[in-house]
Specification:
Blueprint lengths: L1 E4 L10 E5 L7 H17 L2 E7 L3 H5 L11 H11 L3 E5 L3 H4 L3 H12 L2 E7 L12 H11 L2 E5 L3 E2 L2 E2 L2 H9 L3 H8 L4 E7 L4 H4 L5 E4 L11 E9 L2 E10 L10 E6 L10 E12 L6 H17 L2
Parallel strand pairs: 1-4, 2-3, 2-5, 3-4, 5-6
Antiparallel strand pairs: 7-8, 9-10, 9-14, 10-13, 11-12, 11-14, 12-13
């Protein structure tokens, strides 16, 4: 899969099949669209292209600077490559771009620049200045300019329409079973291990302090979690604490994972942490000994849930 930064940098003499969206989470509804697109592109021997935007349009149009996303750009790239996309075009969303009229968007971007012959879209797609145009308008544009529009209906699970917003809510409410159903995979954090205060080692609970560079990445709420850790092509069970460590008067929030049956120096290494279940909320203890005793209980609880 080729990654193109900006629509202006996409060059191709041949026609393409395209889908457009933020695709936050690349959930099962998104996958339904992408799988149909990739299948069609292979049959017609055309490129399967995907246009996405970063920053997320809501961060620009609604000034939601604090909006947290399910996937980082790098996580999204990995998922889309596995799904078979040929060209991932990441365009920086801006106020200027948002002011393109529907006609300008279709004529100048989709046709002249991206050279589409087919466009796959969700049932509720809107585009153009102030979201002036809908899928019905897109179909009319297709008839006028000579491209097909394929509309993919919503994906429902247990009569609930899947959406990125519902997945974010599920993650923040620690409903990881629902998040997994909607995503088609466990929710994950990816980061590099950095040095912490080293308290864990002194109480027989060494932890890997995970640094996540993307400030927009959605972090689960404070508490202790049963997790699965992917490191060096192997999976390990463990438990993660997210919070400010009130027992030791911590200030900054940290993400620290204690990996079961593991004894390696992994500073500077990358870890993938998959969330399975929340064990308890964050709590301030009267002493380090009380904290240690609770961690023993937490570990036993985690192992019972494996």
């Amino acid at each position: 899969m080729d990654i193109i930064q900006g629509i202006q940098n996409y060059t191709s003499a041949s026609k393409s099949i395209l889908t457009i969206g933020t695709f936050d989470g690349v959930h099962v509804g998104h996958q339904k669209i992408i799988n149909a697109l990739v299948k069609d592109a292979k049959e017609k021997k055309l490129k399967a292209n995907l246009l996405t935007f970063f920053p997320h349009p809501r961060m620009i149009l609604k000034s939601e600077r604090t909006l947290k996303l399910i996937d980082t750009i790098q996580e999204k790239e990995i998922i889309l490559k596995k799904l078979g996309i040929d060209n991932l075009i990441i365009h920086p969303f801006s106020l200027e771009f948002s002011k393109l009229s529907a006609v300008e968007y279709v004529r100048d971007i989709l046709l002249k620049k991206l050279k589409i012959c087919s466009l796959y879209t969700g049932y509720n797609h809107h585009f153009g200045k102030n979201k002036e145009a809908s899928v019905d308008d897109l179909i009319l544009f297709g008839k006028k300019y000579g491209f097909d529009v394929r509309t993919v209906p919503a994906e429902n699970i247990s009569s609930i329409t899947v959406s990125s917003t519902k997945i974010r809510d599920a993650i923040l409410n620690s409903n990881f079973g629902i998040a997994k159903k909607f995503l088609g995979r466990d929710y994950e954090l990816n980061g590099v291990v950095i040095k912490g205060k080293g308290l864990g080692k002194t109480i027989n609970f060494p932890t890997a302090n995970l640094s996540i560079k993307e400030s927009y990445k959605l972090i689960p709420s404070k508490g202790v979690y049963l997790v699965r850790v992917y490191y060096n092509n192997n999976f390990f069970e463990g438990m993660m604490n997210i919070g400010n460590r009130p027992t030791i008067q911590g200030i900054d929030q940290t993400q620290e994972v204690h990996i079961f049956n593991f004894n390696k120096n992994i500073y500077g290494e990358y870890l993938k942490v998959l969330f399975l279940k929340k064990i308890r909320d964050e709590k301030k203890f009267n002493s380090i000994e009380d904290l240690k005793n609770q961690l023993i209980k937490d570990k036993n609880t985690c192992k019972r849930n494996l």
